[in-house]
Design brief:
Helix content: 25-40%
GO molecular function: anion binding; guanyl ribonucleotide binding; ribonucleoside triphosphate phosphatase activity
Number of domains: 2
Family: Belongs to the IMPACT family.
CATH topology of the largest domain: Ribosomal Protein S5, domain 2
Shape: elongated
Number of helices: 5
CATH class of the largest domain: Alpha Beta
Distance between the termini: 20 Å
Structural class: alpha+beta
Organism: Oceanisphaera profunda
Strand content: 35-45%
Pfam families: DUF1949, Impact_N
InterPro entries: EFG_III/V, Impact, Impact_N, Impact_N_sf, Impact_YigZ-like, Ribosomal_Su5_D2-typ_SF, UPF0029_Impact_C, UPF0029_Impact_CS
Largest sheet: 5 strands, antiparallel
Length: 211
């Protein structure tokens, strides 16, 4: 439930190793489907390249269900796997990397390939602009108008926000609060309102960093 880093923008980074060109493309891909689409887009952009090796962590960095990689014709374990290791080591989520190789005529050997693909991506990641993905939970509540200042104060304190709000005989709405803060927020709301305002119906959702 903790926030994690994601790419803020796409990035292209290139270097030459023994006459071979290695071009790293990095994109923001929230799902495995987005990751595969990103790989396809780079293949279409660089059709003359001999290899389009890739890796993705298309979700939270700790979620092993959203990992993928490919050597795309390079010797097994020399490209996609070291690239995935770089992504996992960076602790960045929702990210896909494609390293394109234009062969320059000099073979690098298995160790050289591992260093080339992993190193190219490592240097590209060092240049990547990042932002934070915050994970929210939605809380529904009803309150009297006199209790609105308390709710607004706690929202500001916890950096939450209203998702929806309706004004009738009483106020009804849905709040978004960071999932890691939900228990503390609800406890303070209950305590400071002396039990009059209770948040309920927690539903996990996700959103980017809020202003």
């Amino acid at each position: 439930m903790s926030p994690y880093l994601i790419p803020a923008t796409a990035l292209v980074w290139e270097q030459e190793i023994k006459k071979s060109r290695f071009i790293a493309y990095i994109g923001h891909t929230p799902t495995p489907e987005d990751g595969k689409a990103f790989v396809d887009a780079i293949r279409a952009r660089e059709p003359a390249a001999r290899h389009h090796c890739w890796a993705f962590v298309a979700g939270q960095p700790s979620d092993s269900r959203v990992l993928g990689f490919s050597d795309d014709g390079e010797p097994s374990g020399t490209a996609g796997k070291p690239m995935l290791a770089q992504l996992q080591g960076s602790n960045i989520g929702e990210i896909t990397a494609v390293v394109v190789r234009y062969f320059g005529g000099i073979k690098l050997g298995t160790g050289g390939l591992v260093r080339a693909y992993g190193g190219t991506l490592s240097m590209a990641l060092a240049e990547l602009a990042l932002t934070e993905r915050r994970i929210f939970s939605e809380l529904s509540l009803k309150l009297q108008y006199s209790e609105m200042p308390l709710v607004e104060f706690l929202l500001a304190e916890f950096k939450g926000h209203w998702q929806t709000v309706e004004y009738g005989a009483e106020i009804e709405g849905v709040l978004a609060v960071e999932s890691r803060d939900v228990a503390d927020f609800c406890a303070q709301l209950l305590d400071r309102s002396q039990g009059r305002v209770v948040a309920s119906n927690v539903v996990k959702s996700e959103g980017p960093t809020q202003p």
